[in-house]
């Protein structure tokens, strides 16, 4: 009567499926494993070529310099898991920095400037969210536009000149260090903890996954999509602002040409960490792995004393290689998963022939 | 209310079998009009407390429409709904939820990338401040599953890792955890194993004890007979029968649901015995995943073979495998006596096989392209300038496209319009023309008249008839029995993955087909 | 009114599971749409001419035509890719690469010009093929692949440039003639652009490949079931984008005369803008090459006008970005009402 030849699974069956699933577990994590392996290879190779790089001092500098990247990558994780993407962070950091700088120049008070910066970048994020969720405009296009106009505004407002910011706060940011951890790195750690908490322990996180998994099902479950989108983009705005504060301190000023190509790094960190652009999966830890990979790459290549030219090329080539390997691994895993779950595939067709 | 209505009401309450007089649900005079169709015509349905009420009828009889109204997806054109005797207004799904109506649709609404626990509580998570109370979530899920007697699903598993039967169970658990007072199940056992189905029945019987009203939509009459207390039979949007347990037999159910008013009941004009022709197409020991098991048959030139079965019996998967759309096929397919490998639609096309999907919107149409472009898209390679230049001979293409359109009776002015603006029937004809233009010799159609209005159905049938006369071998997969009966030379009935009955058109009738679909042996009909 | 969000359905990247045919991609037919942007172009022309004395001078119009030729040619490839719901963000750097290669080879290594240009074009095509393979065959989303390719090619550019003294001055009379000459009162480059567009239009309208592109972009699942080799179509599209970028590099070389790092930066975004302003539906499958040409023209006119009006070049970039936004909002506004899912 019932059951179209589907494998009859008794109570032990699903458990058995999980016991047998070590290969499945590996398959699912294959891209992260690949990433870790590649990171190690990069570190070892560069370490071999330039042993001085391994010094604690360089590693600390690398960590501090890439702290903005790490922080923005946390927010980018949310964006990508929810099925969106954000191409604006690099330009927005520049522009937000400019705004901080201008307000600072105007009021003489860096605190006020920073507040203005936060307000601005979060506001932009909220506007983006409205465009994406209510007007249904592609996140890529909206943030791509911001990538262009924010940089343009930043340059235009300052005539491509940097604004000097030199206050005790800046000095503090650059020099403070507790147990070898600088302030920027500490802020990054906080960002990760916050991100992890939000993603795994709050409804915001669950709904982010839901949106990425199946937007229509999420809507039908009663999730307020526009509101969730605002939270996600707003969070990005906040993280951009934090990144701006660190960036400003590191160059002691607002540099409108700062952080070019930055968002690419952030996106790649998330993707290479294993999240997919189609959304619905990812984790803060995976992104961290991706960030470490990119940081190692950035710092390592930079420290090899390569002419600037070769740097970009090699970095890009390695990333392409990483993506290709992961893509291939993913295809293999998908094929094996389909073979293992033959039932699913067949039954899904049943769904397609519903009563109209 | 008139006096006679009052009297009727009193009489009903006296005859009521349940302890409490007021039924949990009453739908009165439900009417739903869509542009061009009357889907429901003054339908009354009453569900008593603690009762499992079957809702049966053929496709298009109105079952889904009626339930969607109840669940808040549609609003009725006329009629009233009473819950516990009090009239209610259901404008949207939220209203339905508030009123305690839970529905398990055929398309699951689970999110595959979230865990079972997350899915069950999605949208109503327990939080302490901002923090998710994960233990509470897991407990709620575990309780929901435990109440269903399910012990073997770990609530921390991602739904995507579960097989479809388990997902169905989770979906039901999810709806149950909302503690509905009225539960609607639409074909719940289609993806389930025997054991799971029985588990489900046990749960439903348990729910009866809690005075929950259950509406059970199914095509599987055996289930109706063994599980349901009462039932309502719909036919053509109207109620034809309301029956109680023990009043029904398989035969009478079949009889009641059949004979849907199809004014254009088509009967093919067969001029020859197609089985005398050569075999165009043969299948040997074909298995598709675990949906189709070891099927063998052959189709002759000029023959129309109709394959039907209940939802999930495997006929769709079989149809798709014939066009290279499945990658889990084993067995052999012969074309013109020679074995072929059909592992992609491209291959199939090259072998002269054409395919009309059952969901043309998702798999057939190019919605923004014009009708003539839709028709010609698969044939472009045949209309190139000679000497290897890849340019299309537009005039020749246009002429042939027009000829195809004429052949399938598509009006000329329609050719230049975007195909999404056409009616379902015309869209289907355009897709048919696409394959005709390729001179396909074998045609596989899945649900050829789905979403086609009644007037156009005949046209589609006539097309098929003409094609058969030209010598094409045609396979039609359909759940519409009159359709199968009307156009086929031979009829295969599938049940649980195998072909359980083969009938010639002369020996078949709606009843025999329907019975065979239910798994009854045709010669045992009592 | 609850507006259904269309986040997933409108991503310009292939998501196999989302091949549900886009509903009502354009309210107005393609012809009407073209009329609309033509009117817009005409309107802008009128306004600009009225408010700037130099705008409509012969010299300035020639200028505009020359200036947009690079963008226009690149946008051909970008249109094809975006028709497939993809995107190519590497084209800008490929244009530079093409320029650099042909200049370096011919000027510094004394390779015959024809061979130098040939090498540049082949290289560009090759990069396009890499994009195609990675995105269609291996299945990585186009935006990521082309971003990574952007990085690689940019690096390549830097490498080659640095080995050649970081700027190359191209004095070959061929390039000068390209820049200076006229054919029938139109700059040669404009004519080349028009010819390329004509070729592209014929390709898209009159060859199976072109029709297949529309089919795959419109409904990839249906395309597969109709027997189209979706993977090949996609790979070819990216290859074409690469080739167009290569050809654009030739035009760029002629325009600037001195090849350095700063050329063609941000070109990919301008290309995407041109395509969008041309009204290409973001859900793919509709739109045309000719519309993109109009879009590129509008973009070029605006840029030119801002330069004439002494807008700071810095602000021009801001304007460009806002333009993308406005174009996209305008296209999308009023559409969502039609997208209400049937229940």
Write the layout of secondary structure elements.
The complex is a heterotrimer of chains A (356), B (526) and C (343).
Chain A lengths: L10 H9 L2 H28 L6 H10 L1 H15 L7 H19 L2 H24 L5 H20 L4 E2 L3 H8 L1 E2 L2 E2 H19 L1 H11 L1 H6 L4 H27 L1 E2 L7 H11 L11 H20 L4 H33 L1 H11 L4
Antiparallel strand pairs in A: 1-4, 2-3
Helix pairs in contact in A: 2-14, 2-15, 3-14, 4-9, 4-10, 4-12, 4-13, 4-14, 5-6, 5-7, 5-12, 6-12, 8-12, 9-10, 10-12, 13-14, 14-15
Chain B lengths: L2 H13 L9 E10 L2 E11 L4 E5 L6 H9 L6 E6 L2 E3 L4 H6 L2 E4 L11 H6 L5 E2 L2 E2 L1 H14 L16 H14 L4 E5 L7 H16 L3 E5 L3 H7 L2 E6 L2 E7 L5 H8 L21 E10 L3 E9 L3 E6 L5 H7 L7 E7 L2 E3 L4 H6 L2 E4 L3 H4 L7 H6 L17 H14 L16 H13 L5 E5 L7 H16 L3 E5 L3 H7 L2 E6 L2 E7 L5 H8 L9
Parallel strand pairs in B: 3-10, 3-11, 6-9, 9-10, 15-20, 15-21, 18-19, 19-20
Antiparallel strand pairs in B: 1-2, 1-4, 4-5, 7-8, 11-12, 13-14, 13-16, 16-17, 21-22
Helix pairs in contact in B: 5-6, 14-15, 15-16
Chain C lengths: L29 H22 L6 H26 L7 H18 L4 H25 L4 H22 L4 E2 L3 H8 L1 E2 L2 E2 H19 L1 H11 L1 H6 L4 H27 L1 E2 L7 H11 L11 H20 L4 H20 L11
Antiparallel strand pairs in C: 1-4, 2-3
Helix pairs in contact in C: 1-12, 2-7, 2-10, 2-11, 2-12, 3-4, 3-5, 3-10, 4-5, 4-10, 6-10, 7-8, 8-10, 11-12, 11-13
Summarize the structure.
The complex is a heterotrimer of chains A (356), B (526) and C (343). Chain B has 526 residues and is α/β, with parallel strands linked by helices.
């Amino acid at each position: 009567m019932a059951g179209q030849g589907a494998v009859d699974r008794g109570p032990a069956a699903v458990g058995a499926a999980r016991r047998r699933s070590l290969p499945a577990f590996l398959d699912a994590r294959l891209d992260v494993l690949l990433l870790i392996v590649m990171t190690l290879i990069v570190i070892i190779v560069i370490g071999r070529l330039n042993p001085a790089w391994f010094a604690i001092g360089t590693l600390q500098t690398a960590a501090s310099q890439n702290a903005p990247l790490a922080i923005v990558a946390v927010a980018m994780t949310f964006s990508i898991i929810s099925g969106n993407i954000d191409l604006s962070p690099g330009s927005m950091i520049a522009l937000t920095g400019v705004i901080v700088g201008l307000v600072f120049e105007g009021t003489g008070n860096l605190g006020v400037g920073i507040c203005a910066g936060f307000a601005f970048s979060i506001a932009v994020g909220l506007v983006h969210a409205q465009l994406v969720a209510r007007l249904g405009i592609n996140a890529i296009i909206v943030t791509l536009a911001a990538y262009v106009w924010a940089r343009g505004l930043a340059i235009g407002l300052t005539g491509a000149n940097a604004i000097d910011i030199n206050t005790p706060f800046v000095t503090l940011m650059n020099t403070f260090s507790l147990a070898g951890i600088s302030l920027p790195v500490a802020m990054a750690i906080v960002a990760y903890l916050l991100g992890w908490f939000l993603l795994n322990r709050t409804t915001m996180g669950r709904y982010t996954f839901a949106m990425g998994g199946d937007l229509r099902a999420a809507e039908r479950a009663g999730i307020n999509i526009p509101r969730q989108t605002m939270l996600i983009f707003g969070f990005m705005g906040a993280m951009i602002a934090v990144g701006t504060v660190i960036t400003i301190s590191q160059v002691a000023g607002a540099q409108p040409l700062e952080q070019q190509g930055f968002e690419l790094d952030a996106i790649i960190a998330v993707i290479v960490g294993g999240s997919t652009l189609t959304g619905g999966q990812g984790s803060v830890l995976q992104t961290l792995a991706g960030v470490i990979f990119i940081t190692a790459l950035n710092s390592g290549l930079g420290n090899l004393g390569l002419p600037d030219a070769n740097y970009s090329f090699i970095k890009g080539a390695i990333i392409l290689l990483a993506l290709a390997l992961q893509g291939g691994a993913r295809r293999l895993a998908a094929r094996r998963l389909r073979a293992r779950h033959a039932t699913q595939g067949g039954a899904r067709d049943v769904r397609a022939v519903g009563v109209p | 209310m008139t006096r006679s209505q009052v009297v009727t009401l009193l009489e009903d309450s006296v005859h009521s079998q349940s302890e409490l007089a007021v039924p949990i649900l009453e739908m009165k005079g439900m009417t739903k009009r869509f542009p061009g169709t009357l889907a429901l015509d003054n339908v009354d349905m009453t569900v008593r407390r603690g009762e499992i009420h079957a809702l049966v009828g053929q496709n298009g009889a109105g079952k889904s429409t009626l339930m969607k109204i109840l669940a808040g997806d549609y609003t009725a054109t006329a009629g009233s709904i009473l819950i516990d005797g009090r009239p209610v207004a259901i404008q949207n799904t939220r209203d339905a939820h508030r009123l305690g109506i839970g529905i398990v649709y055929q398309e699951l609404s689970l999110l595959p990338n979230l865990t079972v626990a997350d899915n069950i509580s999605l949208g109503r998570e327990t939080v302490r401040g901002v923090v998710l109370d994960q233990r509470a979530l897991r407990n709620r899920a575990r309780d929901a599953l435990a109440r269903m007697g399910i012990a073997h699903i770990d609530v921390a598993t991602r739904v995507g890792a579960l097989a479809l039967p388990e997902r169905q169970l989770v979906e039901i658990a999810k709806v149950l955890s909302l503690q509905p007072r009225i539960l609607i199940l639409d074909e719940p056992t289609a993806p389930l194993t025997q054991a799971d189905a029985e588990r489900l029945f046990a749960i439903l019987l348990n729910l009866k004890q809690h005075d929950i009203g259950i509406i059970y939509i199914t095509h599987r009459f055996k289930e109706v007979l063994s599980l349901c207390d009462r039932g309502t039979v719909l036919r053509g949007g109207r109620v034809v029968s309301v029956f109680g347990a023990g009043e029904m037999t398989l035969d009478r159910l079949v009889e009641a649901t059949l004979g849907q008013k199809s004014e254009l009941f088509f009967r093919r004009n067969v001029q020859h015995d197609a089985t005398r022709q050569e075999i165009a197409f043969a299948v040997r020991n074909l298995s598709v995943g675990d949906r189709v098991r070891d099927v063998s048959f052959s189709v002759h030139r000029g023959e129309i073979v109709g394959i039907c079965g209940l939802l999930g019996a495997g006929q769709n998967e079989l149809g798709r495998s014939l066009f290279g759309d499945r990658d889990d096929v084993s067995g052999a397919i012969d074309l013109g006596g020679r074995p072929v490998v059909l592992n992609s639609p491209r291959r199939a096309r090259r072998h002269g096989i054409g395919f009309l999907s059952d969901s043309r919107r998702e798999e057939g149409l190019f919605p923004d392209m014009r009708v003539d472009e839709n028709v010609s898209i698969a044939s472009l390679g045949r209309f190139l300038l000679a000497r290897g230049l890849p340019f299309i001979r537009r005039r020749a293409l246009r002429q042939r496209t027009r000829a195809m359109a004429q052949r399938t009776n598509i009006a000329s002015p329609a050719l230049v319009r975007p195909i999404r603006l056409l009616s379902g029937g015309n869209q289907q004809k355009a897709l048919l023309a696409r394959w005709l233009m390729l001179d396909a010799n074998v045609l596989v159609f899945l649900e050829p008249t789905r979403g086609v209005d009644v007037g156009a159905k005949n046209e589609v049938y006539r097309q098929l008839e003409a094609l058969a006369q030209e010598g094409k071998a045609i396979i039609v997969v359909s759940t519409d029995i009159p359709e199968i009966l009307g156009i086929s030379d031979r009829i295969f009935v599938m049940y649980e993955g195998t072909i359980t009955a083969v009938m010639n058109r002369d020996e078949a009738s709606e009843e025999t087909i329907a019975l065979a679909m239910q798994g009854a042996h045709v010669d045992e009909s009592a | 009114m609850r507006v259904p969000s269309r986040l997933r359905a409108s991503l310009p990247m292939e998501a196999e599971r989302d091949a549900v045919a886009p509903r009502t991609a354009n309210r107005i037919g393609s012809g009407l749409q073209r009329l609309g942007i033509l009117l817009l172009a005409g309107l802008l022309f009128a306004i600009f001419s009225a408010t700037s004395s130099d705008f409509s001078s012969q010299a300035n119009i020639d200028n505009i035509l020359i200036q947009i030729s690079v963008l226009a040619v690149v946008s051909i490839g970008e249109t094809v890719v975006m028709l497939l719901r993809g995107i190519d963000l590497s084209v800008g750097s490929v244009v530079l690469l093409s320029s650099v290669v042909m200049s370096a080879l011919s000027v510094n290594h004394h390779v015959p010009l024809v061979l130098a240009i040939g090498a540049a074009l082949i290289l560009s095509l090759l990069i396009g093929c890499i994009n195609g393979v990675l995105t269609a065959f291996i299945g990585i989303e186009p935006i990521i692949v082309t971003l990574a390719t952007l990085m690689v090619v940019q690096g390549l550019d830097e490498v080659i440039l640095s080995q050649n003294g970081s700027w190359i001055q191209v004095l070959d009379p061929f390039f000068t003639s390209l820049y200076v000459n006229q054919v029938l009162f139109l700059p040669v480059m404009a004519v080349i652009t028009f010819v390329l567009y004509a070729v592209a239009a014929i390709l898209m309208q009159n060859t199976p490949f072109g029709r297949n592109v529309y089919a795959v972009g419109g409904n990839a699942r249906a395309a597969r079931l109709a027997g189209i080799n979706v993977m090949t179509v996609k790979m070819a599209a990216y290859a074409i984008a690469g080739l167009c970028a290569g050809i654009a590099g030739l035009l760029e070389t002629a325009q600037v005369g001195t090849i350095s790092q700063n050329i063609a930066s941000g070109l990919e975004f301008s290309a995407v803008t041109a395509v969008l302003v041309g009204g290409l539906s973001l859900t793919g499958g509709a739109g045309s090459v000719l519309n993109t040409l109009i879009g590129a023209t509008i973009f070029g006119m605006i840029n030119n006008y801002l330069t004439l009006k002494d807008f700071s070049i810095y602000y021009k970039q801001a304007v460009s970005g806002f333009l993308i936004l406005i174009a996209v909002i305008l296209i999308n506004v009023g559409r969502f009402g039609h997208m209400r899912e049937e229940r």
